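Researcher: I'm preparing a figure for a lab meeting and need a structural model of a single chain. I don't have an experimental structure, so a prediction will have to do for now. The sequence is pasted below. Please return the structure as tokens so I can convert it later.
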Amino acid sequence: MKLTQIIEPCGLRLEASSPSWEQIEIAGLTADSRKVQPGFIFAALPGVKVDGVRFVTGAVAAGAVSVLVSQDAQLPELGPDVVVLRSNNPRRDLALMAARFYRRQPATAVAVTGTSGKTSVVEFTRQILAANGLLAASVGTIGIVKPDGGRYGSLTTPDPVSLHHSLAELEGEGVTHVAFEASSHGLDQHRLDGANLTAAAFTNLGRDHLDYHPDVGAYLAAKMRLFEELLQPGQTAVINADGVSSAEVSQIARDRGLNVFSVGRAGEDLRLEGVRRDGFVQLLTIKAGGTDHQVRLPLIGDYQVENALVAAGLAIAAGVEPGRAIAALEGLKGVPGRLDIVGEARGGLVVVDYAHKPEALTAALQGVRSFVSGKLICVFGCGGDRDKGKREIMGGLAARDADVVVVTDDNPRSENPASIRAEIMRGCPQAREIGDRREAITWAVGEAQAGDVVLIAGKGHETGQIVGTEVLEFSDHEVARVAIAGANNNG
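Model: Understood. Here is the structure written out token by token.
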């Protein structure tokens, strides 16, 4: 594709001394100088830690024929055949260029933002669409899930080049519907720009990513780009009416001219009239269009009910008939590591959950409380190089909602693990501290008796633990299974 075609939607200012720049053929584009090949556009994006301009010379040496930079970027001498593209918003323009370069996307796309529930909602949406005979995929934390259930990759919102490349591949494979996670980082960095959305959803707002955003207001503002800029007037915003900040988000959506479709106990379009428990199944009564629907949801936890309703709302916005979308909830399979029942130890239930932020930990603890007739034992830690302010808060929430708290290591990264644990312990001074996560899980499972629930929180589906710069093989599921076997054998 010619350079002029790729940059057409962007309105960029060009600097080029070569008289033939309009004939330049582009072979690819990237923001990673290590991936540059001959004929590529290199996007020298300003980063949080490193400015991409530092890598321009190397990118040109590797064959880049054009570089995308901010308006005020100071560049070295690049030679007459390199076209410099200056942009007021290079991240957004990279996304638009990637969309133009790869051309194809599934016909129907929906996106989900919010602090918690994004991964479950996009996967549930994919499952509901599939149950209604549609070729659907999902993109998010657990990777790209294709219609055959295969999973690839693992980034909440991929960089725009990877995203649009994947969308083109999915469309080429016959996928007609796709659901995305839209993280605050991804929205703030314009990774979803250029995606042709049909509808979008909001789950809830809590405290997260304050190592990146200056405050909760900025965090919410980043998420609201989905409704204020990416969705177009007349499209649908699905709102979890029971989620924190739902009223504010609904108003933002209405001000944009979007159709608000609300779900939940306070919802107007899919109203949750009642929930009863039947073992590990929840019996839901949902009112839609004046009709009551009785549904057996094969998932535990209140927050999974919320996620399922949001997913049903998105499927309806994508064209599925309401009754068929609701009926499909009975076949949902949970996402790995989201209130995931691992097994039973001497009659005590062992559950793994990805909760690694305050609201998510509370939701997980409250989600399993109805299964507790004895003790609720919570094992958790906090990640290093992330928002430190939530550590003591999470300790306090665990102490409030659990009967026994075990503070352990999560992904300490470059921080001192003992220091992280000490910050958590300020919120739960009576907790047991066991730094080694394997030992902590083994101890907690070994304490379980009939009627107890052990909630292992923080890492969910992850299969590695980041210590320093190393990723050590570690799975909460596998460690818990070994501990369960040991506890049951020891009677």
